[in-house]
Amino acid sequence: MSTSFFEGVLSSAALSGTSILYATVGEVIGERSGIVNLGLEGVMLVGAVIGFVVTAETGNPYVGVLAAALAGATFNMIFAYLVVTRRGNQLASGLALMFFALGLTAIIGKSYVGKPIGGLKDTPIPGLANLPQIGHALFEKDLLVYSVIPVAIAAWLLLYRTSWGLRMRAVGEDKTVAFAAGLKPHRLQYQALFVAGLLGGIGGGHLSIAYTKTWQEGMTAGAGFIAVGLVIFAAWSPIRAILGAVLFGGAVAVQLQLQARGSNVSPFLLDMIPYVVVLVVLMLFGRVKGRVVPAGLKNVFEGTG
Amino acid sequence: MSVCTIATSETIRTNDSPTPLVSLRGITKRFPAVVANDHVNLDIFGGEVHAILGENGSGKSTLMKVLYGYYRADEGEVLFEGKPVLLESPLDARQLRIGMVFQNFTLVPAFTVAENVALFLPKLKIRLNLKTIASKIREVSEKYGLNIDPKAYVWQLSMGEQQKIELIKLLLAEARVLIFDEPTRVLAPHEIENLMQVFGQLKAHNYAVLFITHKLREAFASADRLSVMRRGALVGTLMRDEANEPRVISMMFGTEPPAIQRDGSKVDEEATPVLELVSVTTSGAAGELHLKDVSLVVRPHEIVGIAGVSGSGQKEIGDVILGLLPHKGVKRFTTHEASRWPIGRLRQHGLSVIPENPLWMGVVGSMTVTENMALADRARYAGRGGLSMNWTAVQQDTAKYQERSRIPMPNPAVAAETLSGGNLQRLVLIRELGQHHKLVVAFYPTQALDLPTAVAARQLLVQARDEGAGVLLISEDLDELFTLSDTILVLCGGRIAGRFRAEETTRDTVGHLMTGSVG
Amino acid sequence: MSSVVTLSKPFYSRFSRHRDTLLAAGAPIVIALVGFAIVLEAYGKSPIATYRDVLQGTFGSVRGFTEVLVIMIPLMFCALAVAIPARIGMLNVGAEGQLYIGAIFAAYVPLNWPGLRLQFMLPLMTLAGFLGGGLWAGLSGYLRAKGLLSEVLSTLLLNSVAGFGLQYLVFGVWHDPNSSNFPQSKPYPEAAVLPHIGSGRLHIGFMLALAGVALFWFVLQKTRWGYEMRAIGGNPEAARRSGIPISWYIVLLFVIGGGIAGIGGMAETSAIQGRLRPGFSSSYGYIGFLISWMSAHNPVLIVVMSFLLAVITSGRDVLQITQNLPGAAVNILMALILFVVLARRGRKPEET
To answer: N or C: which end of chain A has fewer CB atoms below 10 A?
Structure first.
């Protein structure tokens, strides 16, 4: 049956938005602890390739997702070592991480290019899947799509309703205060980056195991950078990140659908919009003395971190 | 001929004579250049407010940091309820229920009060229950009249309120001895009163309250016991009813040294001032006032000295003069209205600055000494419209200045960051005082220097004055101020508290005014 | 009695600082080569054979060597774009976008006035490229100077916008009707193509880039403005209090840096592509950032590092052809170099 334009957009948005949202939520946690990871793209790629390989070898997509998460977390530990222990420049380290992943995943995935896998099947939710218009688009998707919003909410609870979250945010705001409170900032930052790696890995894994069910070199195509931008757009809140991912996924989806329908509206102008919006939003927030930006990130953005 | 007499420790107990909660006995702490605490004995009692008074550098902060476990004393012991204890770190102090409210708050501005307090709670469950914490905060807040809303964000609160959060943290951690380091420095007058009331409440609930201050008025207003420190030694401890201002002042500042010979000043009262500030007021980020209605005048051939305890507004005056701080009021430079002039322009018109912290403010560490000599006046050494720098000229000028100043020059080819503090200061002095300027603003110019160089530096300032410059000298050294200044201004709490010709006043009077008491 | 001035370090020499940085850059390369060798072994490829093939491919033939130089060109332009603002502590992560916008502005000239003669076409294109890149970066500089937005964020975001802008143009108004669905502009007339040196792909952009480096060195070391820049970079507070106009420099240096990247974009599209195509940059902007950063923003070292990374990048094809490895694998080598530099540059590890 042919899908309406609306359904098509919704469906694509749910799929592309999911990968990005996982990565964004992970990055929110990382940045809340005071660390910006420009290498998130690399983390996602690692998750994508390992997830794909493991799924292909074991035939079990759930194991694949798990592997993707762990791979992302482990990979992020390299970043953590450079940035937390060795106090390396965060921006350069992130970019280095990305390049590393580009090469590493190309090698790892080489023999899997073009290999089809069963992947993560869509599991329709009974009842909801039959709703007109949105049923198929939203409720006949894979488990990762269903879980992403709960995960975002869980991340919010983690940050704002647990003592771990409080301490982690304190580290991201002011390490000296954290020290004074008897905390161990470095340990907390490692932990935050581990969680961020898990989520980034899942985000990448979703792309290869569920969305496209293929592997290709560099298949994340900038999703990691977009996620970093979305964190800013979401003002470092996991809940607002949902909105950002929705908007972004929607924009991407609209563009895809338009192209599929041979439309003339330039998708690239649409693509620009999120970035311009983030830019404007940041400028405005900047005036309000950025209470919104975790104070610890100021060093990174001003070149002293 | 008078000799400064230092009274031996006169610790007088109260009538009840309970055992002191905490006793410091023979505490001695040495740093490389100075003995910060010299065999200090101090008793602290519960249910009492105890003020520790002293000038900058008297050792009061160090003593409190020893008590708090921040420093370990080289000699002496600390007794808690009569028994000796080992204080090796703030953790030990906390276990003894000793808590300190620092001048710099350990608060996260982006968090709420409750979140900040939670961060410092010793036992925190995994599931963060901010509601319980909030109610505990409200309870304590009511009990001691603190008036703090747990849900408020710290960045919204005034300094006074933030200070109270620090206190709440200590109270909730069940501290019994509360030490406050210069608590009123950042407070507005009504907040100070409020704090004194809080002290009263704490005292009534049997806490031991210690506060470090140099402001006599507050000490007299709220303390039961006053201890005075001077040059590392405890001069004496008085109960409130035995203490009066003259006595305390003389304990803080010592007796008058012999009058120092000074040349008669050549100030021409009628000349156009080099610098004039009229009703200058500045405010900080949260709206608190730093400088309040400050007016001053510096004339050619005049050295104006500004006396004041550190933090009274010297930095702000400097920033205003340099054009780095927006202000209300008028600033005039020679005949020009210069309120909005950027520093470059001021320098072009003859402003020279000896900054408070040369490594941070006056010198580029990664550049060589020679390169730093050109920093203040780049246009002079730029050649061919900026395409080249005339380093030969710089070196020649440097040699000239050095001769004039008779200050030994650090090696010109080394990087400035490798220089010692003294050498850095010499670099800056040679650079800034080498040529003729109209106005010289000097912040603590001799603080890092050995005696011969300090003498030479003072000589340079006098020389500059004699050649026609107006000199604004900001210093903590009363001897230096009295030796050099033609006019002395006293700065206290952002206001000019007194204005005198140097020969018409005494250190005593100045000391009174610096510490906020009326002479 | 005058006090004796003691020196705490040996005679300070600029040359020895060069040497130290060079050594510091050499060790990571060796370590990285070893690391990469391990990766190669893990995939059953002989590291020695690989390295030998790469060296042969790049140094063994004139063509191979000129290819390295060709890749060096955009790298040097981008590294300069980063180095210039970096001298006063500004981080320009936007060379990628400035490259694209420069190419776009430059493309305007041949696409609208195809009949111009070379003597007018090329200088105009160069100017246009400078203008484009300069404006793009200048925006970030202005926002930073006014304290509105960190330049890291704005340059990063503007990169993406620039990329989309380019795609928009080549899919849209500038699309070549004769190329069916291929996204690219009409080919540039011959007058708009930068002259080549010799028979290969090497073009005079190489000279331009080197000239830029030389100019950078000259300004920095010899002129008053370079002196003021170094002062700001060394101690912004002291520079400010000496009357050096920092905000002005921020904007100016971003404009100049971005402009140079813009010229790089013009050079790349003009000489190598011959038309405007999307994605003509293989992360040159980011690699340029890393080059400049590794060189401590030092002009001489930038040339050296650009060469080195160009060698690595050109090893891409060798890897694919002779070793049957994906070309992207060279990124591992580059990343390893960076990792070592980062780990050493950072301050000493604190107790956790």
So the answer is: N
